[in-house]
Amino acid sequence: MQQHQPVARDELRPDKPEEACGVFAVLSPGQPVANLTYFGLYALQHRGQESAGIAVFDGPKVRLHKDMGLVSQVFDQDVLERMPGDLAIGHNRYSTTGSSKVCNAQPVVLMTRLGPFALAHNGNLVNAAELRLSLDHLAGEFTSTTDSELIAFAVQHAVNGGLGWDEAIRAAAGQCRGAFSLVIGTPEGLFALRDGHGIRPLVFGHIGERQEARWVASSETCGLDIIGATYIDDVGAGEIIHFRVGEPEPLRSRWCEEPAKLCVFEMIYFARPDSRFFGESLYSYRVRIGEALARETPVEADLVIGVPDSGIPAAIGYSQVSGIAFADGLIKNRYVGRTFIQPTQAMREAGIRVKLNPLPDVLAGKRVVVIDDSIVRGTTSRKLVAALREAGATEVHMRISSPPVTHPCFYGIDTDTQDQLIAARLTLAEISAHLGVDSLAYLSKQGMVDAAQANSSHFCTACFDGAYPIDLPDEVRASKLMLEPAGLALVG
User: Do domains 12-260 and 284-333+354-480 have the same CATH topology?
Assistant: First the structure.
């Protein structure tokens, strides 16, 4: 029997920063909250495809269903009908802390002296090891390897120590360092909060009339839109909000005072283009970074194409400013999702194209500008350039609508160690030669933040400049910052 060589790790991973998680919650007495949460998670599926879960409160009872797979694979109508109640907490997972297995799926449900609660988390703690040690007396009760479960046990410990829900959640949040947007269901209603910098997004709105007090919290506004909820506001950086049954106004307060530092990659790539940040859709922002890219990095060419889907708006913006015609030169298989069935070595050598396929009749004989949102390792980009040339493109000029990714993320995005980031190892000319392009250019950091039309200091840009807004313990820093000189201060 022919023996296949092991597949290199880089060949199995997309050449992108990989997803954050999605959280969703509904407090709506008398409505099918499990079904509403299903649709909310469906809208947030792009944020995580490894597992999905929903916990529903029905009086003093909590029903939990979670499993590996997409939302549509984990839930069906029969499952949802067995989950009646007034409050639901939902989660889509992409693993950042803790491996990809069902015991690490969320929400986390625990019991306290005040009754059960359910917690769903988007983000990543940088002090998970320290928090784990502080909860060592509970180690025998841990069922997962996630930082999310540690947050839940910190809440449980505070409640069982005599605090009420609000005080206990604040106390637990005060023990956490890193990125965390949380939705927490309790017998006293729904809580939503963000870490002091607000690195991961979280918004809230209502269903129906405001006085009906039917509340929804979601990682992005697209989760509100799908169920017809009206957007009210973002959960602020360092804010905790308590939504209560029958109360037309939530209780809002700050538990922490820090400068806002929203992850700029949410703007560039992660969040859906129809989600709204700073009062407008991200589609509009992505068109503007394409316009800025055209002004900063002009080139003579015949066509502008975007790498679907996230590169398309920037490609449209580049076309509008440059005057070079926009065309669909790449077709994406939209039904691939995250597949664990990998092609054989022979299939890869034959040039199997699982996700993207070029259009030769569009590209043949053309000088092409291809727009993408980022390059992490360069593996996919190199194959893409080769496919464009095979399809007949006479020149391939690559333009990236963000700066070079030179530093790993520690706040909820799964990026490589620094020695695997191509822009941390190679010069621009070397990257260009590696990819096989006629030219390569990136958007400047200033162009990226200016296009947001928001206060530029309100963004975390650590993956581009190493200015980490939250202090990193030495052991965490050493785990990914492979190329930094010893003792180099990178923390912002």
Answer: no
460 is an active site residue: no
* 3-class DSSP assignment, residue 11: helix
Q: Report the alpha-carbon distance of residue 10 to residue 378 in Å, rounded.
A: 9
Indicate the DSSP class of residue 185.
Answer: E
Token pair recorded at residue 165: 């829900």
User: Which residue in 21, 256, 263, 409 is the catalytic one?
Assistant: 21
| Helix, strand, or coil (residue 478) | helix
Comparing CA positions, the residue from 286, 262, 292 lying closest to residue 273 is 286
* Spatial contact of 64 and 42, defined as CB atoms under 8 Å apart: no
Fold (topology level) of 12-260:
Glutamine Phosphoribosylpyrophosphate, subunit 1, domain 1 (3.60.20)
Are 468 and 195 spatial neighbours (Cβ–Cβ below 8 Å)? no
Task: Give the 3-state secondary structure percentages of the chain, helix then strand then coil, rounded to 5.
Answer: 35, 25, 40
Q: Which residues contact 323 (CB under 8 A, 6 or more apart)?
A: none
Torsion of CA 428, 429, 432, 433, to 10 degrees: -150
Provide the angle, in degrees to the nearest 10, between the axes of the packed helices 428-435 and 379-390: 50
d(CA 161, CA 472) in angstroms, rounded, equals 29
Q: Which residues of the chain have pLDDT under 70?
A: 1-20, 95-101, 335-354, 482-492
Q: Angle at CA 134, nearest 5°, toward 129 and 135?
A: 95
Helix or strand run (H / E) with residue 368: strand 367-372
Backbone phi, psi, residue 478, to 5°:
-65, -25
Percentage of the residues of the chain whose pLDDT score is greater than 90: 73
* Per-residue model confidence as pLDDT tens digits over 458-468: 899 999 999 99
Instruction: Quote the pTM value.
Output: 0.90
> For the domain with range 284-333+354-480, which CATH number is right: 3.40.50.2020, 3.20.20.70, 2.60.40.10, 3.40.50.300?
3.40.50.2020
Torsion region of 56: left, alpha or beta (phi above 0 gives left; psi -120 to 50 gives alpha): beta
Task: Give the list of residues 6+ apart from residue 142 with CB closer than 8 angstroms, or none.
Answer: 149, 153
Domain boundaries, the chain: 12-260, 284-333+354-480
